[in-house]
Design brief:
Blueprint lengths: L1 H14 L3 H23 L6 H13 L6 H25 L3 H16 L6 H23 L8 H23 L3 H22 L7 H35 L4 H20 L6 H7 L5 H25 L6 H20 L8 H23 L5 H4 L10 H10 L6 H23 L6 H9 L4 H28 L3 H18 L4 H19 L6 H21 L5 H26 L7 H26 L9 H23 L10 H24 L8 H12 L6 H32 L1 H9 L1
Helix pairs in contact: 2-3, 2-7, 2-20, 3-6, 3-7, 4-6, 4-7, 5-6, 5-17, 6-18, 8-9, 8-10, 8-12, 9-10, 9-24, 9-25, 10-14, 12-13, 12-14, 13-14, 17-18, 17-22, 18-22, 19-21, 19-22, 20-21, 23-24, 23-25, 23-26, 24-25, 25-28, 26-27, 26-28, 27-28
Keywords: Cell membrane, Membrane, Transmembrane, Transmembrane helix
Family: Belongs to the YccS/YhfK family.
Membrane topology: Multi-pass membrane protein
Length: about 725
């Protein structure tokens, strides 16, 4: 067993895959081998292609549910598969009807993405299976019954689906453990980046670091959402499983660590200047770095089931405490002014370590209390219908992609018919894999698809020449299919080369594999061109057009988040569920803003507009979010004081101002400069005596920092509006 474990670790390092990907590969390997064995045993090697393609389509539709959830998903998948395959078989002899049905079915299935990732995968796999059916019928060497291709494809899908369900039952929490591992690794990387703020680097380096931090924040949010989605499906399928409570607690601990890590306290440049001659900032840097390492250790412990070692981060926390004790005794008079902000910062670091310690102390807990923190969404036919209807607008990315995919596939079919391509349906298959929702991702996938196809064809020509024996070529096809699934998410060029090799080896069993080499290359080029034209001209999703709306939405969600947080400092009874919902929406909006900026930077030069200004705005937006997150890390109820009304007024003003800036962006109205009320609040917060309660002082100083960020956001937004809209926005300003 130890030797086997070392072999798996070596394979993971070599392939760059995770445990879940390896288990994915094992299932595909068993599925393909089973399909090959059946075809070989009954001496019907021609059946291997539809069975293989059915296995692949089913594997592409696989979700991360528990075994009960996978049974439901498999049932939906098989129904869609059999209906689609028979539809293709019956309509294919009638080109006009078939072309019209392609447009309708492609749009309808692509809109399935409106229901979430699970149904998006099923819809995509169904479209792929439809094209597989076309390829199989097109390449048939003799007349086959109407049921032949649809039934074999569906049987291959059923065979892999059964394997998937059995695997999910035997290894119930492997996917969840892997997702938690990835989450802790991403949080650890975030902490490593955050540690670079101590001591503070140069001004130019700070802006670059903040942008990197915002992008890594997006990766953490993606990982959090993935774990939450898996947890929801597990609670729904197996609510009485006692081990699930432990994983829910791990999820909330990671959420708490990220919340504290994303908090910003006071102005780091002032702290760096005041405590330049102390070692405290270096100790804080080391502590955050070690905390990042500890997060990785927790993730690896979750995956491997071994003990969690946090000694290094605990030692660095002890060093921070010693340094703070020394400063408290020996601090110079000039340092006392910022000693309280420094204390708040170190308290947050210490609390972060306490969150890490919770992970080590976890044991199986009852699910009843933990699961209440993750509400189960109620799914009805009405809610499904409403979700789809809400997305039937050109403003929706799902709708735009559905229209694009529908027209692109129809155009591909028209080209196949008019040019009379002998193996032309790979044009449509290429379009399905290459045409993605954004231009940047489509362009990257296009290059990888073409390069991978060339590599795969060269490898296929070489291998079928070197190894003319049928069984060896089938073994190569199986191995290539496994490699495709191991690498398709992170090494798409290699994945394309592998699937191309598999296709040629399979076709060489029923016809001459050399005859499909050139058609495969030509079809790939045509399909890639169609995808590029579709994403460029059909309802293009240029990020610079989306940035103002995305930025406005981010400001609005941050404002709502702040409003909920301020209640913790003013009210006794606050709904934790409402707060968590508001926080998740704010985190998602901030991550979406950063990803939209990244998408814009991948687009053609003339569509990368005002990049520098947008970078500065995204940095400011994320910094604002960081200051708000600090309220969450320290939330508690303030004692009654006469100046509490000032804090409430300042919080309400910031919330209202963020909504106002968001509305101005959406309505293309000029953002005003700071008002008289702004100046009054900032002066009042700055002049309020600092000898108040610690929690009161914290809220006061954070609100003062938020006002500074708000002023900068107003200034940069005004500058952007004038630069983008020019005379129109200037004319509007004169009328005010």
């Amino acid at each position: 067993m130890l030797s086997f474990k070392h072999s798996l670790q070596s394979l993971r390092k070599l392939s760059g895959t995770s445990t879940s990907q390896l288990s994915y590969g094992v299932r595909v390997f068993v599925g393909l081998c089973g399909a090959m064995a059946v075809s070989w045993s009954i001496d019907r090697i021609d059946m291997v292609i539809p069975l293989f393609l059915g296995v692949i389509a089913s594997a592409l539709a696989e979700t991360e549910d528990g075994w009960q959830g996978r049974v439901r998903t498999l049932s939906i998948t098989l129904i869609l598969f059999i209906i689609t395959a028979f539809g293709v078989r019956l309509l294919m002899p009638y080109p006009w009807a078939f072309g019209a049905s392609i447009a309708v079915v492609a749009f309808s299935l692509s809109m399935g993405g409106a229901l979430g990732r699970r149904y998006g995968l099923i819809s995509q796999a169904t479209l792929i299976l439809a094209v597989y059916t076309m390829i199989g019928l097109n390449q048939a060497t003799h007349e086959v019954p109407v049921w032949y291709e649809p039934v074999l494809l569906t049987l291959g899908a059923l065979w892999y689906g059964i394997l998937s369900v059995i695997w999910a039952a035997l290894f119930a929490h492997v996917t969840l453990r892997q997702a938690l591992t990835s989450l802790y690794i991403e949080v650890g990387l975030y902490l490593k980046l955050k540690s670079k703020f101590f001591p503070l680097p140069t001004r130019g380096a700070v802006d670059s670091l903040r942008l990197d931090l915002a992008q890594q924040h997006g990766q953490v949010v993606i990982a959090l959402n993935r774990v939450r989605e898996i947890l929801v499906s597990r609670i729904d399928s197996d609510p009485t499983n006692p081990r699930l409570g432990r994983y829910i607690r791990f999820y909330f601990i990671a959420q708490g660590i990220h919340e504290r890590a994303s908090s910003s306290h006071y102005n780091y440049s002032d702290l760096a200047e005041t405590f330049f001659h102390s070692d405290i900032l270096f100790r804080l840097q080391r502590q955050l770095s070690e905390a990042g390492t500890s997060c990785r250790k927790i993730g690896e412990a979750i995956r491997g089931g071994h003990a969690i070692d946090l000694r290094d981060s605990e030692e660095t926390v002890a060093g921070v405490l010693r340094s703070m004790d020394y400063l408290e005794r020996e601090a110079e008079p000039t340092q006392w002014r910022l000693f309280r902000p420094l204390r708040q910062l170190t308290d947050n670091i210490i609390a972060l370590q306490q969150e890490l310690d919770k992970a080590r102390q976890l044991e199986d807990v009852s699910l009843s209390d933990a699961s209440l923190q993750i509400p189960q969404p109620r799914t009805t036919f009405r809610s499904i219908f409403d979700q789809i209807v809400d997305q039937l607008t050109p403003k929706s990315q799902v709708f735009r992609h559905a229209v694009r995919m529908s027209l692109a596939l129809t155009a591909g079919y028209a080209i196949i018919q008019n040019l009379n391509l002998s193996v032309g349906y790979w044009v449509m298959l290429t379009t399905l894999f290459v045409c993605l929702p954004t231009f940047g991702s489509t362009r990257k996938r296009l290059y990888e698809r073409i390069a991978g196809t060339v590599i795969g064809l060269v490898a296929a020509w070489s291998l079928i020449t070197l190894f003319p024996v049928e069984i060896i070529q089938l073994a190569i096809a199986v191995v290539a299919g496994v490699v495709f699934f191991l690498t398709r998410t992170n090494r798409y060029m290699l994945a394309t080369a592998a699937i191309t090799l598999m296709v040629v080896c399979c076709f060489n069993q029923v016809s001459d594999g050399y005859d499909v080499i050139w058609p495969r290359l030509i079809d790939t080029l045509i399909g890639s061109v169609i995808s590029w034209l579709a994403v460029f001209f059909i309802l293009p999703d240029w990020a610079y057009r989306q940035l103002p709306i995305t930025f406005a939405e981010g400001l609005r969600r941050s404002a709502d988040y702040l409003r909920e947080l301020m209640r913790f400092y003013q009210e006794d009874n606050v709904s934790e569920q409402v707060y968590r919902h508001s926080r998740r929406r704010a985190y998602n909006a901030d991550a979406l803003l950063t990803s939209t900026l990244v998408n814009m930077q991948q687009e053609p030069g003339h569509f990368r507009r005002d990049t520098e200004l947008w970078q500065r705005l995204v940095i400011r937006s994320h910094t604002l979010f960081n200051y708000i997150a600090a309220f969450s890390a320290h939330r508690g109820t303030l004692i009654e004081q006469s100046s509490n009304q000032l804090l409430a007024d300042a919080g309400n003003y910031i919330v209202g101002s963020l909504h106002e800036v968001a509305e101005c962006l959406e309505q293309r109205q000029l953002v005003n400069d700071s008002s008289v009320e702004f100046e009054r609040l900032r002066k009042s917060l700055a002049d309020t005596p600092a000898d108040e309660d610690e929690r009161h002082y914290f809220v006061q100083s954070q609100l003062h920092s938020l006002l500074g960020q708000l002023e900068e956001i107003r200034r940069l937004t005004h500058e952007l509006q004038v630069q983008v809209h020019g005379s129109d926005i200037k004319a509007l300003s004169k009328t005010r």
